[in-house]
Amino acid sequence: MLKRKIETYLANWKQTEGRKPLVIKGIRQCGKTYIVQKFARENYESVVYMNFILEADKKSAFTGNIDVDTIILNLSALIQGSRFIEPVLSLMRFKNARKQGQP
Fold this sequence. Notes:
By secondary structure, the protein is an alpha+beta fold. It is 33% helix and 12% strand. It has three helices and two strands; from the N terminus they run H-H-E-H-E. It has a two-stranded parallel ribbon. Helix 3 (68-78) links the parallel strand 1 (46-51) and strand 2. The N and C termini lie far apart (33 Å).
């Protein structure tokens, strides 16, 4: 299988000290979801995947006080069986997490 440039970029991002959340943008059907899910499976013990189009109720985790600990607590209550462990071992993947009215 061909290795994509994004795979190297994601690996470098993961190794970066004090990294910030990563936003991946691109045209429809170019493999964004596939590559992030593949990267997550290969690099993290715990992966939480949310599709805000299919699961609109999950957006409520981000209302009110939006510090990281509160968001994780809210998501844990909303997602049955979710496990949020050390940040180094956990990855959260959000699909279509843009504000209403944005393209």
